[in-house]
Amino acid sequence: MMPVSAEFRFYEELNDFLAPERRKRPFSLEIDRGRSVKDAIESAGVPHTEVDLVLVNGVSVGFEHVLRGGERVAVYPVFERLDIAPLVHLRPAPLRETRFVLDTHLGKLARHLRLAGFDSLWHNDYTDEEIAAIAVAQKRIVLTRDKGLLMRRAVERGHFVHETQAERQLAEIVRAFQLEGALRPFTRCRVCNALLRDVTREAVAGRVPEAVRAALERFTECPECGRIFWEGSHYERLRRILRDTVSP
Ligand SMILES: [Zn+2]
User: Separation of 188 CA from ligand 1 center, angstroms?
Assistant: First the structure.
């Protein structure tokens, strides 16, 4: 196929994926005639999972739109709280329940998400293939800081995590997926992701420090690992984080 070129302009945080000289300005990108706009976008380094709207010569198109050369292409990220209903959304319809699978580097974020109540699979020896397969089979959103993982064909739903610190990452995810109303703090085991069940003070005798048992009334137990949880200092800390997240 003979290479031709089209003029591309990426908006907002999509610029983070571009070489510095291409950020926040139009640039010419060589494309193979007949290739899809999705292929062209990924050849510039931007994972398709981050893109929600593509305008070619001002008209909203799907990922499979074929470029012929000479077009002006504007590429927008997932809009937050902005109504673009009349245009073609490239993201699949939102999932009824937001569930995640995280790459091996995001263990701390996985624990934070679980504390906030979100079903979040993470294991320190997942391969990229496993993560992509889990995402497809269980309709989970891939969270990663690895662009290559998001560019895998099988991955439909994903999010490139921009923040590097776990508490800020949690806030980023809650905002990006508009999960403020879905927070269920302290309902899920932060170690193994299982839903916790309430247990009585009597049932935890000998399993928690006696001073804690005497002082508190509410205890929960993980059915998977048997850990007992109570409202200790990490509760207060997470509560503060969640509060800041919901009303920054
Ligand atoms: Zn557990």
Answer: 8
